[in-house]
Amino acid sequence: MDAIKTIFEHRSIRNYQTKAISKEVLDIILQAAIRTSTTGNMQVYSIIVTQDKKKKAALQEIHFGQAMIEKAPLLLTFNADFNRFNKWCKQRNAEPGYDNFLSFFTASIDALLAAQNAVIAAEAQGLGVCYLGTTTYQAQKLITFFNLPKGVVPVTTLVIGYPESIPELVDRLPAEAVVHYEEYSDYSTEEIDLMYAAKEALEETKLLLKENKLDTLAQVFTQNRYPKQMNVDFSKLFLETIKNQEFMNQ
Questions:
Q1: DSSP character string of 58-88
Q2: pLDDT in tens, 17-35
């Protein structure tokens, strides 16, 4: 039940104390990540631990200047990583065939599963966490910064530390919006209206509409937060990065 309570109380923390995280606490987080589910027990991911102040400052700049990165004591960068596995195969007279999109997707899944286990372990020990979506936007810069070899691509980063303050729980769509039984049941216009009604009625939503000078919350997403051209541009950059890291040869 403690694990369920931890999951249900998850919040993204963006304001941290500078208090250090002990080696014992960090080791539990890392071991929890390592014990996660993994494709074929290959563990085709890697985790880079960043605690050095100068390196965190440099990473803050790469991640578009997000202040929490420098203040929080710990960053964990999770990578899709076939480098180690490929080398092991070659050293055991086995020819690896993992220079393709499926392998990148497999390794990305492994990395994200490990990251979520790390989140739960961190929160269970009183820490706060925040995922950085900027990892994929800045993948090539992170590859250079971390000196990542071919076969390794960063897919997400966790900021971890003791919370300075605890925000309110963020809203979520009702279960019927995301859960389907036996087969996919597509949504009617009326069901879409019903599923998003509570989110659209929030005071936070009203403030967003006023700040962005828009009519609907959907417009905030499509015009300001994640506009099409930004998605297209970063898609091209990320795809080129994946190819450069030799995941798309075939």
A1: HHHHHTTT-HHHHHSSEEEEEEEE-HHHHHH
A2: 999 999 999 999 999 999 9
Tens-place pLDDT, residues 164-209: 999 999 999 999 999 999 999 999 999 999 999 999 999 999 999 9
CATH fold of the domain at 2-168: NADH Oxidase (3.40.109)
Cβ-defined contacts of 172-177 (< 8 Å, 24+): 173/199, 174/198
Q: Cβ distance 81 to 74 under 8 Å?
A: no
Q: How far apart are CA 4 and CA 33, in angstroms?
A: 17
And the tokens for 169? 């729980």
Share of the chain above pLDDT 70, in %: 99
Spatial CB neighbours of 193, under 8 Å, sequence gap ≥ 6: none
Domain residue limits, the chain: 2-168
